[in-house]
Amino acid sequence: MANSKKLTLFGLIGITMAFFGTVRSVPTLAITGWTQIFYMLVAALLFALPIALMSAELSTGFPEEGGPQVWVKKALGEKWGFVTSWLLWVQMFFGMVMVASTVGVLFGYVINKPDLSSNNLFIFAVILISYWGVTLLNLKFDMVKIAGNWGAIIGVYIPFVILVVLGVIYMFKNGIQPNSYLGNFKASDLLPNLGDLGSLAYLSGIIFIFAGVEISSVHANNIDNPKRNYPIAVIASVILLVIFNLIAGMTVSNAVPMGKMELANITQPYMIFAENLGIPTIFVNIISAMILIGVLVQLSAWVLGPSKSMIKVADEGNLPPFFQKRTDKNIPITFVLIQAIVISLVSVLYIVVPDVNSAFLIITITTTILYCLVYAMIAISAIRLRYKMPDAERPFRLGNKGNGLMWFVSLLSMLSVGITLVVSLIPPSILEPSQYTGYIVYQVVATIVMVGIALIINKLKKPSWKKTEVVKASSKHDNDDQIPSSNMGGLQS
After folding, report:
1. CB 59 within 8 A of CB 238
2. Hey, which end of the chain has fewer CB within 10 Å, N or C?
3. 322-330 contacts: CB < 8 A, separation 24 or more?
4. Would you say residue 472 has pLDDT above 60?
5. Can you give the C-alpha Rg of the chain in angstroms?
6. pLDDT > 70? residue 68
7. Per-residue confidence at 455, pLDDT binned at 50, 70, 90?
């Protein structure tokens, strides 16, 4: 019976892609024109691949429930393990608002009301409805099972393929458009323009495409043949993301007129392709509905993921007993409801910030900054555990002997994190000069507050918070025939 609960290689790739694969990020990539090739390679080689390789070793070497929080705790102690879980949880307050904002844009096109995509009140209302909707569904059903199967296929893979095919046909028919983001090519366009530092901020948005590359590590206890399948699945997911995003990004860059890119509106290029190629407008309605499913799938996949780590550290005494409550399906109900409430409050930004493009990019960058802090701790932990626990069995190991390769990968990851944090504090060129100071202050304060809250909670924790019975019933439940939704491992082969 246990084997029926094991993830296959295809299932694991599917659920990993569902975590962070979406056409939603294509406009952020496309707006950089030819420079996207450089940005994408930097993001993949310096950021995603090192994190994926370290996560592959850490998750198969230390496969306990909790993923990154467990690795950091073993390496750096309980305080930083808690901070890791906290950051992985709070980053979604910003990230999921940004993701959910695209639901309103897409829904407007589904019902032939594209003007709604620029209506801030409508976007705000749809964020509330969509996020609370997927939250309530996750309390009743195993939505991750859906996310790893048909949801990702309908909402991610098919739209990506259609976008690329139409983009290539458009390019063959019309060539490189002189008024597009690819027009008037010069060799210097392949590298960032250091004279326009604001354009470097887009690198942070592009790196966000790969944020979550390590999250599938929570499945380490539920993978069929982890020694072989986990590293293959994560690395394959990174490679597929590079290919899909770069081809899609280039074709969209060629179709959208310079200065007209709408970051929150992935439907825009489909409309241009359909009109130019004589495709009936109902096609745009259908593809918008499909992408809408993909976005809802992504929201659903993230509802329970970070909460899984948080419930573990709550049980260990890092948070009061109120946070340790579970439903009869073992779902960390307190965290799930708190995050839905806070995300509702954060979504008010879409009312007070008049420009949807600016709000979208700013929130994306905030999420990336918080994620980078986690990745810095993962990189430090990976090398620290090589010396602290050298004899631990590592089914997947970076390098057959010695620690040289691990040092290289860890330092490469730290370098990429440092670069990302620096460019994230450069005000994007999309902002007005009068907004630059406010932007920098916001990013710095948001980061300090998010980390500071975790450190304060850790300082105030009491011995009475620790769960006296180390969730024996829950542990049994984890191994029963019914795999809990909070384990994010309910996908059956």
Report:
1. no
2. N
3. 324/467, 326/474, 326/486, 327/139, 329/139, 329/482, 329/484, 329/485, 329/486, 330/474, 330/477, 330/478, 330/484, 330/485, 330/486, 330/487
4. no
5. 22
6. yes
7. very high
Q: What is the pLDDT of residues 130-182, one digit of tens each?
A: 889 888 888 877 666 655 567 767 877 788 888 889 999 998 898 888 888 88
- Cβ-count burial of 209 within 10 angstroms (0-12 exposed, 13-18 middle, 19+ buried)? buried
Query: Residue 134: beta bridge partners?
Result: none
C-beta atoms surrounding 341 within 10 Å: 11
Q: Are 304 and 138 in contact (CB under 8 A)?
A: yes
Per-residue pLDDT tens for 213-271? 776 666 655 667 766 777 787 778 778 778 878 888 999 999 988 888 887 788 889 98
Q: How far apart are CA 457 and CA 313, in angstroms?
A: 12
Alpha-carbon span 226 to 208, nearest angstrom: 26
Tokens representing 377 are 């701790």
Residue 453 makes CB contacts below 8 A (sequence gap 6+) with 86, 90
Tens-digit pLDDT profile for residues 185-197: 788 778 887 766 7
pLDDT at 380: 95
- What is the Cα–Cα distance from 446 to 236, expressed in whole angstroms? 34
Q: What pLDDT does 136 receive?
A: 87
- Residue 198's CB: how many other CB atoms inside 10 A? 16
Cα angle value 101/114/349 (rounded, 5°): 25
Of 186, 231, 233, the closest CA to residue 20 belongs to 233
And the tokens for 464?
């009475």
Angle at which helices 267-277 and 78-110 pack, to 10 degrees?
30
How far is residue 120 from each of residues 343, 399, 447, measured CA to CA in Å?
Answer: 16, 51, 26
Select from 490, 264, 251, 232 the least CA-distant residue to 359: 264
pLDDT at residue 66 greater than cutoff 50: yes
Measure the CA–CA gap between 491 and 493, rounded to whole angstroms. Answer: 7
- Which whole number is the average pLDDT over 54-62? 84
CB atoms near residue 348 (< 10 Å): 12
Cα–Cα distance list, 211 to 16, 367, 389 (Å): 11, 9, 27
The neighbour count for residue 259, using CB atoms within 10 Å, is: 8
Q: How far is CA 263 from the centre of its chain?
A: 16
Average pLDDT in the chain: 80
Query: CB atoms < 10 A from the CB of 352, how many?
Result: 9
Burial of 479 (0-12, 13-18, 19+ CB in 10 A): exposed
- Which structural domains are found in the chain, ordered by start? 2-486 (1.20.1740.10)
Within 111-221, residue ranges assigned H as helices are 120-140, 143-146, 152, 158-174, 201-207
